[in-house]
Write a structure and sequence with these properties.
The complex is a heterodimer of chains A (about 190) and B (about 220). Chain A is built from nine helices and no strands. Chain B is built from eleven helices and no strands. In chain B, helix 8 runs parallel beside helix 10 and helix 9 packs parallel to helix 11. The two termini of chain B are about 55 Å apart. The relative contact order of chain B is 0.11. Classes of the chains: A mainly alpha (about 190), B mainly alpha (about 220). At the A-B interface, helix 1, helix 2, helix 3, helix 6 and helix 7 of A face helix 2, helix 4 and helix 5 of B.
Chain lengths: ~190, ~220
């Protein structure tokens, strides 16, 4: 049986803290380390929220914003949490900049016929691949709410605040998204 | 399957229904196989969503990101990179140098005074006060030390070691400058030197507090 030993600061955390400290002071090489440590999460968030076509550009926008805002990071939350919230805000800002985006959240009806009903093959890995593929086909509003709630763990009141919609709209869109995905996964 | 209950399955799954509403759904589920199947399916979707892995982009986006960073900031550290202890050490290098210059100045002053045997008061301008008053300075230093003591555990031990070493160096320089000023309170260089050392110490303590607050 392994014996647990208390180590207050694992080496990897020391390195991450140092990269962060140096990046705050303007060290681009240290910022690259931060980028490489977090890019998978940011890119996955962008891809799921906005679709694969926009994911690269949004990821770039997020990290430029992170660089610009680094000096405002005060350590009240973990850096990964701070970065993630900033990423969500950047992505949502992009949505807001599109005309009538808000109306799409409120009024959009999910088009069942736009969704394939073929049952995905069984298996956990296959399920995840199928779910990622199915996410891309969800209507925009439902997809973003599903990603924020079920993938990223936001609550309905937080989502409503972020997207400028009613809590009831968030709940309704989430249920519709889940039902469509459930049909697809079989 | 009743639409009324079907639409509440997500809230049931998320445990956001009131106790009464939850009981109603559970009673319905006992009699409705279709809703039970939907609930199982929804639960599977949620489980899968929560376990989705993060996947990096298919191509390296860093060159694009780097190219988009503000140019001025991008060039600041391109050729020289420092660890935190190194940065702190570099930050007090000027204090060390000026401390040495001060010591050399004092030594030369003592030798010249002994050789000439004359008082220097007539050769120097009027008293030049240090730019940081004693009361304000001491209060600021005490506050910063107290804050740092509270957050000290959040600092990297190597950073703490470098900080203490450099603070000790600055304190020695301050003590030497004050001892020299006690002999010659009107000396402009010594006043300027002391003010500089005090500012260096304040800056160092502020930076250390900033690092501790951000948990770096």
């Amino acid at each position: 049986m392994p014996v647990l030993s208390h180590s207050p600061r694992p080496a990897v955390d020391d390195a991450a803290r140092e990269h962060l400290a140096r990046a705050v002071l303007g060290d681009v090489d240290a910022f690259e380390r931060l980028y490489r440590a977090h890019v998978a999460r940011v890119h996955s968030l962008a891809r799921r929220m906005a679709g694969p076509a926009s994911a690269d550009e949004l990821t770039q926008d997020v990290f430029v914003r992170v660089w610009q805002k680094l000096s405002t990071f005060r350590g009240e939350a973990a850096f990964s949490t701070w970065l993630h919230r900033l990423a969500v805000n950047v992505i949502i800002e992009r949505f807001r900049s599109r005309a009538a985006e808000r109306l799409r959240f409120i009024d959009a009806e999910i088009e069942d016929q736009a969704f394939p009903h073929a049952v995905a093959p069984a298996g956990r890995h296959t399920d995840r691949l199928a779910l990622e593929a199915a996410l891309d086909r969800l209507p925009d509003g439902a997809r973003r709410i599903f990603v924020l709630h079920d993938v990223e763990g936001y609550k309905h009141d937080e989502i409503a605040g972020l997207l400028g919609i009613a809590v009831g709209t968030s709940k309704a869109q989430l249920h519709r998204a889940r039902m469509l995905l459930r049909k697809h996964l079989g | 399957m009743a639409d009324h209950f079907s639409s509440r399955l997500s809230e049931y799954l998320d445990d956001t229904l009131s106790p009464g509403e939850r009981l109603d759904v559970e009673r319905h589920l006992l009699d409705c196989a279709a809703c039970r199947a939907d609930l199982d399916g929804l639960r599977r979707v949620v489980d899968e969503a929560q376990g989705l892995p993060d996947v990096p982009p298919s191509r390296d986006l860093w060159p694009d990101v780097r190219a988009a960073l503000p140019v001025g900031a991008r060039r600041r550290f391109n050729t020289i990179t420092l660890s935190i202890p190194q940065a702190i050490a570099a930050g007090v290098l000027l204090a060390l140098v000026s401390g040495l210059v001060g010591a050399m100045f004092l030594d030369r002053q003592r030798r010249e005074s002994a050789a000439a045997g004359v008082a220097r008061e007539s050769a120097v301008p009027a008293v030049v006060h240090v730019s940081v008053s004693d009361a304000n300075y001491n209060r600021a230093i005490d506050d910063l030390k107290r804050l740092l003591a509270e957050e000290r555990s959040r600092l990297n031990p190597k950073t703490v070691e470098a900080l203490e070493r450099n603070l000790a160096t600055i304190d020695r320089a301050i003590a030497e400058a004050m001892a020299a000023l006690a002999q010659d309170p009107s000396d402009p260089f010594l006043n300027s030197h002391l003010a500089h050392q005090r500012r260096t110490k304040l800056t160092l303590l502020r930076q250390a507090n900033q690092l501790a607050r951000t948990g770096l």
